[in-house]
């Protein structure tokens, strides 16, 4: 099992971001259970709403951290962290967006098109894993 420090280093996120992600996944599991049990007729967009809100809060937090690091004259660290964080958020948002489109049946999107961004994300994680000592 990974330690918290290893997760923070490997994924390039803070503990606060991990808490946001964990809470979003918790509410996502509740909404997906409600949807699949047929308890309420909710759309797939509503099911994925906790994950989209988590993306928004993570992006907002990244902007705050970027500004704080720039004010502390840590420009190189700020730009690298902002690039890494926004790239992760954008790739995962794209996957969730395409998945919602596919589940709603609005467009003809193949499964390979939905999951293609995950390979880019895994490549970035592998590169980051090689940089960690």
UniProtKB/TrEMBL annotation:
The chain crosses the membrane at residues 7-30, 42-67, 79-99. GO terms for cellular component: endoplasmic reticulum. Keywords: Membrane, Transmembrane, Transmembrane helix. GO terms for biological process: intracellular calcium ion homeostasis. This is Uncharacterized protein. It comes from Tetranychus urticae (Two-spotted spider mite). The gene is 107360803.
């Amino acid at each position: 099992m990974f330690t918290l420090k290893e997760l923070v280093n490997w994924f390039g996120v803070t503990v606060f971001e991990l808490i946001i992600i964990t809470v979003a996944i918790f509410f996502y599991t509740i909404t997906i259970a409600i949807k699949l049990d047929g308890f309420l007729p909710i759309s797939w967009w509503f099911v994925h709403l906790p994950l989209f809100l988590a993306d928004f809060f993570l992006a907002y937090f990244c902007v705050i951290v970027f500004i704080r690091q720039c004010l502390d004259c840590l420009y190189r660290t700020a730009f690298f962290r902002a690039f890494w964080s926004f790239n992760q958020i954008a790739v995962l948002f794209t996957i969730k967006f395409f998945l919602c489109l596919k589940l709603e049946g609005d467009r003809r999107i193949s499964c390979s098109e939905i999951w293609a961004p995950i390979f880019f994300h895994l490549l970035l994680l592998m590169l980051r894993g090689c940089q960690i000592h």
